[in-house]
């Protein structure tokens, strides 16, 4: 790839930032409220627009329902477009209603399953009204104790429910199915791994694809290989970026394991990019700054992946030159791509140094004043 082609591909990178990553979040021990935190979806979109203004690469915002529910979806759609953004994936929420204690679409009670399917169908309609291209579904369903429920029955309920949703998908929408090893269920998660998710997608049809979240695997799992495999099957629909040390930590992508991120991007860059979304929660760090840093880390990882000399790599692989091939990856990984990314951002009308520009802009101070939440903070 010529340097011009690398720059062009980098310019085309589009990351969805998550509306839920701008609000307050915490652990099960405490949530520390931050001054200036957005009070509603309109303000979450303002924050997303600021991240896009600084990085040039975060042009879409993923939404979560009912967290982002409003009465007037046309107004929300206009607000998003008015801030220069596109609506990303619509994420239903089947994990907070007390009815879902024992599961949502896998629940033993037909009434609860029906309610859950109703929410998924409602989200298809919301997505349609907002002009979103995907429903991105993560289920918290699972069991905590051996024998708690019939594992095969749960799987059949899950497939039946998703088949209904898939058959109702409006034109222009696809269904992304996300898996997760454990948590909140600690014995058996109903969609625990890429294989379970892929089998369900294959049962549903062409418009169902798998979404991989970096934090949803056991330690040591080779995630770039999962990317390669799903992409090869035409079933890689999306990717959730974050980083972790132990479990689903949702830290800033690239902060703990940048080499893994580079290897994932190398596989992603081998074909058309799937939907790329940040899925993080920033508990102690400044939220908008965290999102900007995440996008910058993604730009840099992608730039390095694009710089891999794929011809030299293939030649070394075919010659059986084990370390020559490995070196072809390391050469790209060791390149300092910061000047290249700064140039690309400048050409997009964004900031050469987005973090410095954010700090100089006074955005955090301004929203802290405008979104006066002192009363809530004092509580
Ligand atoms: C889950 C999963 C989903 C996200 C929720 C909030 O662990 O990663 O993608 O929507 O968290
Ligand atoms: Mn996720
Ligand atoms: Mn997660």
Quick synopsis:
The protein has 379 residues and is of the alpha/beta class. The protein is 47% helix and 12% strand.
What does this structure look like?
- The strands form three sheets. The chain has a five-stranded parallel β-sheet. A three-stranded parallel β-sheet has the order 1-2-3. Strands 5-7 form a two-stranded antiparallel ribbon.
- The model has no long low-confidence stretch (mean pLDDT 97).
- It starts with a helix and ends with a helix.
- The chain is built from 15 helices and ten strands.
- Helix 1 (3-12) packs antiparallel against helix 9 (287-307) and helix 10 (310-318) packs antiparallel against helix 11 (322-333).
- The radius of gyration is 21 Å and the shape is globular.
- The chain is an alpha/beta fold.
- The protein has helices spanning 3-12, 41-55, 73-82, 110-130, 151-167, 194-204, 223-232, 258-268, 287-307, 310-318, 322-333, 338-347, 354-361, 363-370, 374-378; strands at residues 16-18, 60-65, 86-92, 134-138, 142-143, 174-178, 188-189, 208-213, 236-241, 275-278.
- 47% of the residues lie in helices and 12% in strands.
- The chain binds beta-L-rhamnopyranose and manganese (II) ion (MN) (2 copies).
- One manganese (II) ion binds at residues 213, 215-216, 248, 279.
């Amino acid at each position: 790839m010529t340097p011009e082609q690398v720059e062009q591909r980098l310019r085309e990178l589009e990351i969805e930032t998550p509306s839920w990553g701008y609000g307050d979040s915490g652990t099960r021990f405490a949530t520390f409220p931050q001054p200036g935190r957005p009070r509603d979806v309109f303000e979450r979109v303002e924050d997303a627009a600021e991240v896009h203004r600084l990085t040039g690469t975060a042009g879409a915002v993923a939404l979560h329902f009912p967290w982002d529910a409003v009465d007037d979806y046309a107004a929300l759609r206009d607000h998003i477009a008015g801030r220069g953004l596109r609506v990303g994936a619509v994420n239903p929420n089947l994990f907070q209603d007390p009815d879902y204690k024992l599961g949502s679409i896998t629940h033993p009670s037909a009434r609860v399953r029906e309610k859950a399917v109703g929410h998924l169908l409602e989200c298809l309609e919301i997505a349609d009204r907002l002009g979103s291209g995907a429903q991105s579904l993560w289920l918290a369903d699972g069991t905590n104790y051996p024998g708690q429920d019939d594992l095969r029955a749960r799987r059949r309920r899950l497939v039946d429910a998703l088949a209904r949703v898939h058959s109702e998908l409006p034109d222009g929408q696809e269904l992304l199915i996300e898996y997760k090893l454990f948590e909140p269920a600690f014995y058996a998660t109903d969609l625990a791994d890429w294989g379970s998710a892929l089998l369900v997608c294959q049962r549903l049809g062409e418009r169902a694809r798998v979404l991989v979240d970096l934090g949803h695997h056991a330690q040591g799992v080779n995630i770039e290989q999962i990317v390669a495999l799903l992409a090869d099957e035409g079933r890689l629909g999306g990717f959730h970026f974050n980083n972790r040390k132990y479990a689903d930590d949702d830290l800033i992508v690239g902060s703990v394991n940048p080499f893994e991120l580079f290897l994932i991007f190398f596989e992603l860059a081998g074909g058309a990019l799937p939907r790329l979304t940040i899925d993080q929660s920033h508990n102690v760090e400044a939220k908008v700054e965290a999102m900007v840093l995440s996008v910058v880390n993604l730009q840099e990882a992608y730039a390095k992946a694009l710089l891999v000399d794929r011809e030299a790599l293939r030649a070394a692989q075919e010659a059986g030159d084990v370390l020559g091939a490995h070196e072809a990856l390391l050469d790209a990984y060791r390149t300092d791509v910061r000047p290249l990314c700064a140039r690309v951002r400048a050409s997009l009308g964004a900031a050469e140094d987005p973090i410095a520009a954010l700090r100089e802009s006074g955005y955090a101070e301004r929203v802290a004043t405008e979104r006066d939440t002192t009363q809530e903070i004092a509580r």
